[in-house]
Amino acid sequence: MNDLDEAIARSLGRAAERAPRLPEGLAARVETRYRARRRRRQAVLAAAAVAVVAGGTVLVLRDTPASTTVATTPDRSAQPATVTAPDAAVTAQVPPPPTELSSSPEPNAPLTFTAEATPGPAGALPPPVEQVWPQAVRKIPARLADGRAYHPQLFLDDRTLLLTTESGFEKADAVHSYDLETRQATKIADVVTPAGSTTFASDFAAGDGHLVWWTARGNQVTIWAVPLGGGTAEKVATHATAGGLDRLQVADGTIYFSGQEAPGVYSVPLGGGTVERVERAGEHRLMAWPWVGVRAKEVSDGFTAIVNVETGEKKEAVVRPGESFFGCGLVMCSGSREGQAFVRMRDGGGEQRLDAMVPPGVAPALDRFLTYPIGDDGWEGVVLRDLTGGTQAELGIRPGKDGSIDTPMPASGGRLLTYELGEERIVIDLSKIP
Amino acid sequence: MEPDARFADFVAQRGDALLRYAYVLAGDPHDAADLVQEALLKLRASWSKVRHKDNPESYARTTISRLHIAVWRRRRRELPIGQVPDREHHDALPTGVDDTLWRLLAALPRRQRAVLVLRYYEQLTDEEIAGVLGVSRGTVRSQASRALDKLRAAVPASERSTP
Fold this sequence. Notes:
The complex is a heterodimer of chains A (about 425) and B (about 160). Chain A is of the alpha+beta class. Chain A is built from six helices and 29 strands. Chain A has two domains: about 15-85, no CATH class; about 85-430, Methylamine Dehydrogenase, Chain H, CATH 2.130.10. In chain A, the strands form eight sheets. A five-stranded antiparallel sheet of chain A has the order 1-8-9-10-11, with no helix packed on it. A four-stranded antiparallel sheet of chain A has the order 4-5-6-7, with no helix packed on it. In chain A, strand 28 and strand 29 (about 425-430) form a beta hairpin. The longest helix of chain A is centred in the N-terminal third of the chain and has 37 residues, at about 25-60. Chain B is an all-alpha fold and about 160 residues long. Chain B is built from nine helices and no strands. The radius of gyration of chain B is 17 Å and the shape is elongated. Chain B starts with a helix and ends with a helix. The interface between A and B is large, with 75 and 85 residues.
């Protein structure tokens, strides 16, 4: 150990001595929440059983093919009602999906939740997603026709995905469009990684007929663009900022972005030119143009306060004492209170408590959807939940041998949820869920 | 409500250690408390199995670590957590180089900070850190290297040995 190593170890050790003490009665509080969750789960199971019995009764009385269907597929509407009483006002407030989509280098990187080795019974899972929202689900091969692996980044339109292929770990070497109907991939452009790059191509974003992304060498960020119709990627601009970019977006012929470690929103014309700071955005960061936001001090995640730089409209989220881990979209926020996850609207209305391990600080995708693993005694599966109606579907994902479970998250932009399942890749278009 | 006695014992014996870990990881007392509570709830749900097969404390620490970087994994957006935490939680305020380093550590991107905490506070190997955070070993090395570069640049060698 050198002197810096020792100094870090000493600093962390002394900081640990200043940590707060565990609150009194925490074990009892955890126990209460644990049992409440179990009770609710049992209520769901009971409701499902009632639905099956009701279907079975119909089967006996009428004995028709139609009722057989009912018996094998219990009425789903019986389930959500026992889980939650969602606020109907939420539905009316959901904005349309954003027109600009962007992605991260690992937009679909699943979170892995650890768990014990033995999965619990799968009987308590909600129905499969392809049954609940068939119009939103597609299955495509997990490999391209030439056998290569690929990574979906975003929807270019209703039937076209943007894919990257990679020459190494997270190192994209080309971008392709993929037709979900014909299952054909067409190369748009090669992705060049300049020598000495410290960050490979990241944050692919589409708009105005172009695709943009960035690479970095140390603190020097390069922004690239190529027409979606195909061509050679060109350098649009360079910008010095530590830690790379935070978000990148195309709107009105302009690329907007924020840095990872310093506040502020910047712009550069899509065709190239000078990078300029968006003065109206002040110290804010880009959320989804023209919305920019800040993070409040007492909450660990952000965009609780946002402002539209074009109209000056401001939106603040209600944050009550003791609440933290906020993640807000334009309308909905998720948060945590004494370890209890909840979602509600910015104005504080329509709160739903979630007895689930929701990743902290994650804003609901399209202000509507969350994914999280469920299971009472070991993970059983992963659900996609529509917060506006309380409907849930399970994604078909099961725990691995070590009991951990991968939970796919919607890509940045919110519309695409995708994951591999055996030899297939499931592609869910969240904007197609009615 | 009466908790499961062994679970309650575990929380009583190891809860503060988990909170210390969460605090150096998150750099904020509120976030640390939330992380611990969420991890304990998950541990309680799996208690009957974890208690027999695994080390409950290691299970809880991994859950805390992964919850902490969850937001980064999704969006790579980092949180400025550079403020010194509330004074009411302090038994002794940091001084000198410890204070400087703590502030610098708090200002690091979340992933870099997590790597340093796991290496220097938890004393894990790079391989173990990769396992806990669910990233490659190369990522662990590059993040550690970037973080150390920043700290090295900010704290002159002559000051580092000051107790």
